[in-house]
């Protein structure tokens, strides 16, 4: 089993309900932002670290997204009949991802600054960590209305609380997935196990991050990509 991640899991199965009318006829990752499907911006980051393989899970309106991704050498797995949530989706894709830690990515955020995958790759310490999350200080976020998901100790360990937003990108070991009986479950369940073991870590992002999971995030993201001061 490898110690360092060389595969990326892209979560692309969701219904995109926050996008409202924009996802009535297309899955959220295909919603255009700055003239390109949202997921292509995530793929730019993924290719920036030259992974051995990229895998995406699909469920809602999968056909057009499946064709789009296969044309870009992304392996896909369609969840059917039910969507499996992030934890179940990750476990379902393990035959394609391989054993060992993997990157996971949400496709509904835009990043302006250093490649967050490369930052995580450089900071990953498999001897201490079972997961390393890219977190974003509230002052570096756009389009996000919450108070944050985690607090971060000086040694990098995370606890639940306000201040740091989970940006949707992480490195995570997959061993504990075998201990979960449910078929459909969130990665929060895995994180809770790691919190108990004090092996959940965070790395603060030094650039800007925009939540593009809702229509109001699109113009903010486009301004960020254009280099505007937003």
TrEMBL record:
Question: SUPFAM superfamilies, per this entry?
Answer: Nucleotide-diphospho-sugar transferases
Q: Source organism's superkingdom?
A: Bacteria
Q: Does the keyword Isomerase apply?
A: no
Q: Tell me which UniProt keywords the record has, alphabetically.
A: Magnesium, Nucleotidyltransferase, Transferase
Domain (MobA-like NTP transferase): give its ranges.
11-129
The secretion signal range is: none
CDD domains noted in UniProt: NTP_transferase_like_1 (cd06422)
Write down what this protein is called.
Answer: Nucleotidyltransferase family protein
The record lists the organism as: Sulfitobacter profundi
């Amino acid at each position: 089993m490898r110690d360092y991640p060389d595969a990326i899991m892209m979560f692309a199965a969701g219904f995109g309900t926050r996008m409202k009318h924009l996802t009535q006829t297309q899955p959220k990752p295909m919603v255009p932002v700055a003239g390109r499907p949202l997921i292509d911006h995530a793929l730019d980051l993924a290719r920036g670290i030259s992974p051995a393989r990229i895998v995406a899970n699909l469920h809602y309106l999968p056909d057009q997204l499946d064709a789009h991704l296969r044309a870009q050498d992304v392996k896909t797995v369609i969840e059917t009949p039910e969507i499996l949530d992030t934890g179940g989706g990750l476990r379902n894709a393990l035959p394609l991802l391989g054993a060992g830690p993997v990157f996971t990515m949400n496709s509904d955020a835009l990043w302006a600054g250093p490649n967050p995958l490369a930052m995580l790759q450089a900071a990953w310490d498999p001897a201490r960590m079972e997961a390393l999350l890219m977190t974003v200080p509230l002052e570096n976020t756009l389009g996000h209305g919450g108070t944050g998901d985690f607090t971060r100790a000086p040694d990098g360990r995370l606890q639940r609380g306000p201040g740091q937003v989970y940006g949707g990108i992480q490195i995570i070991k997959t061993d504990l997935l075998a201990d979960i009986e449910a078929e459909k479950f969130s990665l929060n369940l895995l994180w809770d196990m790691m919190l108990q073991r004090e092996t959940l870590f965070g790395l603060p992002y030094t650039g800007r991050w925009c939540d593009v999971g809702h229509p109001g995030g699109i113009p903010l993201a486009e301004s960020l990509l254009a280099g505007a001061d937003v």
